[in-house]
Amino acid sequence: MARLCKAIRKDGVPCAAYALAGSDYCFTHDPSLVTKRAAARRKGGRGKRGKGLVRVLPDGVGNLSLDSAEAVRALLESCIGWALRGELDRHSLHEITYAANATIGALKVSALADRIAALEKRLSKKAAEE
Asked: Is 24 helix (H, G, I), strand (E, B) or coil?
């Protein structure tokens, strides 16, 4: 019969994981496995991310302009369509959506800066007239 780990967690609650064969502790709490846990964390941190991964974006993604909110909307609309048809992986869609949101933020700031500059120009002309 499987035994539970004898360790007490930092929050004071007994560990609910099963003990390893020949040990009173689970993998996380077994003091003899410190180096194996460290190696597992390093390996897990590296994972497969980026190794041999080639993301091929559908034709036209690189040619789209992002100089207006309408252009960003068109990009997102295209990407969502590609993703729904299986032509764009979800990770690429996520990255494109994140970049699109950042672009929209930059476009908003730029538009506000233009409006402020125009107002300042009008105010300075009005002050010169008086």
From this structure: coil
